[in-house]
Specification:
The complex is a heterodimer of chains A (227) and B (256). Chain A is α/β, with parallel strands linked by helices and 227 residues long. Chain A has one domain: Rossmann fold (3-Layer(aba) Sandwich), CATH 3.40.50. Chain A has helices spanning 47-55, 77-86, 103-113, 118-131, 148-161, 178-194, 205-211; strands at 2-13, 19-31, 36-40, 62-67, 70-71, 88-91, 166-170, 197-201, 214-217. In chain A, the strands form 2 sheets. Chain A has a 5-stranded parallel beta sheet, with helices on both faces. In chain A, strands 2-1-4-5 form a 4-stranded antiparallel beta sheet, with helices on one face. The chains are: A alpha/beta (227), B alpha/beta (256). Chains A and B meet through strand 1 and helix 2 of A and helix 7, helix 9 and helix 10 of B.
Chain lengths: 227, 256
């Protein structure tokens, strides 16, 4: 489902003496349907960079990133937009929303975007919000004022609202208590059972052991310290 | 899929000074594109060239019309272009007073655009105007008041209602949230996002506010000195800017 071929990435900081930083080079791996792969490596190894390259918000200089039939490196912006709407989900560490939009709408948005009718989207949203233990009295409020853990759970509910065939998870269990962590891990297991290909970053080793089939050490792709 | 708007080599200079140079892109139905850049970078010149307010020195602006398919709007006749700007196009000005008739009631402002496309039944026009005031969160009881008695945020929302009442397919916006209070900005952003999604609009938004484009635009073009220096997906351009100027722009935003 997700396939990387000889992917490399450098950052050029034009305003800081044109410093060139090589982050990862020659990355190749594939993730099959229903498989969950963890990216590991020390902080700064390039896990998040690689994840963002696969989502397309970091530009990839060379190589090929195939998600389904599309090569993300060559794709037009509108193809990437369609891919993200239908195929590729991403749960980031932070929730980013328009202020004042109620939580119910925030979570329902990915469903509405793929054409699910308002009634069905709301039913699915309500089920998910109860599952991640967001109290019902908060549903009509904007999540911008929620606590960190609540925002994280709203973000997860939003990420799992639509059944994407491929998902990227950036520390989905960080800042969650044991009960909620368990809920999130079950959501991941259900997604895998549906055939979703998942790439995740988990600092929580027990979580990694429970849901991940393989680990990929990103530091193997880190080039020696460059110029 | 045919692009809704296809822009080729748009160039406009003011005497020896470059307004914008050789700008080209395609916009597809339902897409929202942001144009950012510092003051004087040519974003408004470009927007005005595309919307037919300025005649470009060179280039084509091809719009996929309902009747005849793709047509170059630069070379079409003035009445045809005017018809387009009343029906399929809308233009939201930065200053609401540039886009409204200040001496005419709020309802009249919305109704005027309907009458321009042939609506004649007073009751229907009034109903539709009232309905649109509600959609942009202006109290319908104010339908007979003049926009001069409205606050800046209300005027801006009235301008949006006036523009969207005829169900356009492409909206040009010049700094739609500029000069507004941040709380009003958030409300307007939420409103615009909802309208864009529900009506399937395509939009081109000129702004210097990167937070606005991140929330509203799918794609982004960065301009400097009349040239497009970078273009791509909004989050890619903002999270991983490639050009020196974009890097400077992104790193200059104050964190709240």
């Amino acid at each position: 489902m997700i396939k990387l071929n000889n992917v490399s990435k450098t950052f050029t900081l034009h305003n800081q003496g044109s410093a060139v930083i090589e982050v990862v080079s020659d990355v190749s791996f594939a993730v099959a349907k229903g498989e969950c792969v963890a990216l590991t490596g020390a902080s700064g190894a390039g896990k998040s960079t690689l994840m963002r390259m696969i989502y397309g918000n970091y530009l990839t200089q060379t190589g090929e990133i195939r998600i389904g039939d599309i090569d993300l490196v060559q794709a037009e912006p509108r193809e990437v937009i369609a891919l993200r709407r239908e195929v590729l989900g991403y749960v980031s560490q932070f929730l980013r929303v328009v202020p004042r939009v109620p939580t119910l709408e925030v979570v329902a948005e990915p469903l509405r975007a793929v054409g699910v009718c308002a009634v069905d989207a709301e039913a699915r949203t309500r089920a998910l919000l109860s599952r991640v233990n967001i109290p019902e009295r908060l549903w009509s409020l904007s999540p911008t004022t929620f606590s960190g853990g609540e925002q994280q759970r709203v973000n997860i509910a939003r990420g799992f609202a639509h059944a994407y065939p491929a998902m990227l998870l950036d520390e989905p269990t960080a800042s969650l208590d044991a009960a909620n962590r368990d809920v999130v891990l079950s959501l991941i297991e259900e997604a895998k059972a549906r055939g979703t290909a998942i790439i995740g970053i988990f600092h929580d080793e027990a979580a990694r052991a429970r849901v991940c089939d393989r680990e990929i050490d990103v530091s193997l792709f880190t080039p020696g310290v460059a110029a | 899929m045919t692009p809704l708007l296809s822009v080729h080599g748009i160039t406009k200079s003011y005497g020896g000074h470059v307004g914008c140079a050789d700008v080209a892109f395609d916009l597809y139905p339902g897409e929202v594109m942001g144009i950012v850049g510092e003051s004087g970078s040519g974003k408004s010149t470009l927007l005005n060239c595309m919307a037919g307010h300025l005649t470009p020195d060179a280039g084509r602006v091809v719009f996929d019309t309902r009747m005849d398919g793709p047509r170059d709007t630069v070379t079409m006749s003035e009445p045809e272009r005017r018809m387009l700007s009343r029906t399929d196009w809308a233009f939201v000005h930065q200053h609401a007073r540039d886009g409204l008739r200040m001496g005419v009631s709020a309802g009249g402002n919305v109704g005027e655009r309907l009458m321009a496309v042939g609506a004649r039944h007073y009751g229907e026009i009034r109903n539709k105007a009232t309905d649109w005031l509600e959609r942009v969160e202006v109290d319908p009881a104010r339908v007979d008041d003049r926009p001069t008695t409205f606050s800046g945020g209300m005027q801006q929302r009235l301008q949006i209602a006036r523009n969207l009442v005829t169900g356009p397919r492409l909206v040009f916006m010049d700094e739609p949230t500029g000069g507004l209070d941040v709380s009003v900005q958030a409300r307007l952003l939420d409103l615009l996002r909802g309208l864009v999604r529900d009506m399937g609009l395509s939009a081109i938004i000129v702004t210097h506010d990167l937070a606005v484009v991140r929330l509203l635009a799918d794609r982004l073009m960065v301009m400097k000195s009349g040239h497009v220096v970078e273009a791509g997906l909004t989050d890619q351009v903002l999270d991983d800017p490639q050009h020196a100027y974009t890097q400077l722009l992104v790193s200059s935003v104050l964190q709240v």
